[in-house]
């Protein structure tokens, strides 16, 4: 988390220096005009911090697992979708990056791939329990667990996008 906090500040300074900021539509709400030039691509620091944290944890304690690698792959892949969205905004100097369909298809591809990898190559418990997986819970099975995982990943990514846009 410290890497993300420090990295975010350094990234903001660097992006500001490069003038890589958020374009705002002229026909948008008046209140949004104050956001013009706000540095974008902040997800680089968050994804980079998560990735570096995982790598450092392995160097310190040797914790690489297939599950952890698949989670990091999903985080980085979701970050790539966000980076593409922000990159289009900056390079084309338009407020609209990826269209909704492309963004959702990208996130859907990330989420479905994650669910498939987890079920096929990692020790995945498909029981839904709100305490621990070894406690009694609702057995979802592979299909319902996959739908649940996809919904959580896409919902979380969109929650981040929503709060980022406020």
UniProtKB/TrEMBL annotation:
The record, for InterPro entries, names: Glycosyl_transferase_4, PNAcMuramoyl-5peptid_Trfase_CS
Look up and give the organism this protein is from: marine metagenome
Q: Which UniProt keywords apply?
A: Membrane, Transferase, Transmembrane, Transmembrane helix
Query: Which subcellular locations apply to this protein?
Result: Membrane
Q: What is this protein called?
A: Phospho-N-acetylmuramoyl-pentapeptide-transferase
**BP GO annotations:** cell wall macromolecule biosynthetic process; cell wall organization
Membrane-topology descriptor: Multi-pass membrane protein
Q: Does the keyword RNA-binding apply?
A: no
Q: Which GO terms describe its cellular component?
A: plasma membrane
**A single MF term (Gene Ontology):** phosphotransferase activity, for other substituted phosphate groups
Q: Which PROSITE patterns match?
A: MRAY_1
Q: What is its main location?
A: membrane
Q: Where are the transmembrane segments?
A: 37-56, 63-84, 104-122, 142-160
